[in-house]
Specification:
With 347 residues, the protein is of the alpha/beta class. It has eleven helices and 14 strands.
Amino acid sequence: MKAFGFLSFGHWSPAPGSQTRTASEMLHQAVDLGVGADELGVNGAYFRVHHFERQQSAPIPLLSAIAARTRRIEVGTGVIDMRYENPLHLAEEAAALDLLSDQRIALGISRGSPETALRGYEAFGYTGSTDPRGADLARDKFAIFLEAITGGRLVEADPQRALPGSRLQIQPQSEGLIDRIWWGSGSRDTAEQTGRQGLNLMSSTLLTEDAGVPFHELQRDQIDRFRRAYAEAGHPRTPRVSVSRSIFPIVSELDDAYFGGRPDGDQTGMIDGFRSTFGKTYAAEPDALIDQLKADSAVMAADTVMLTIPNQLGVDYNLHVLDSFAEHVAPALGWIPNTEGPVAGSR
């Protein structure tokens, strides 16, 4: 582990105890959290994207706002559901955000996770999928997105305004943008495909397979297969890998009240039709937490760990979590603060 950031689902609710009661509060608090995290040396501010729910759904304006008020922190997603996206519009927005942020982005994209809406992407106008989960739509649109951000000339020019037969790119273009695109992979097979495509790998606390081994071992195998496929494909740069974890250093009575006594163990179950493995929550005093995380082979193999945060507990408490991790745990795992420059990949 070289870096860590926070991953927020962007929940809001008027429920008792919530400090994030409206969409406006969620968005403003997300910006404040990004600014505070940047000052702590945290390497990344990442946001999950869901539609038709009281959660973050339109990430580009939020990431732009955070980038405008920060200097070093990486801004990104974990992940954008490609089923809902116009690939050329997303390519334009991604390039504009990349330029505005001085290349401080890490856009995680994937097919998307199970959702409340039944085939909600069809309400956005994206029909024709032959897959009940819409995976074919996501793959086809992602291929167009990649072609667009790498300078593909996708549209024939009007011969009255350009040379006959010429074709046009989307604009703006941001050089090297593909190096800052990640695929959210839920299995070892899709990790290998991600490596062959030359993308970065984003892996969460859920894998849509169960190999009868601890979650971290299954995820470590996923990472190893990704890096091997990346190298075999001959891509020249060093790729990046992120994993997400629920990690809470217990350094106060309030921490213990919130997270002490959490069940310690992986879980398996059915999700979206797949037998899946879910990673455990880590909550302990710092010395114990360091030992536990050093034993997590996927955490130690990844360059970046995303800490899933309880954003409805408010900005102050979540900055406390990040600060506690930065002060008491991360240095022992190999953390390099954002003041030392952008995060580099590992082989």
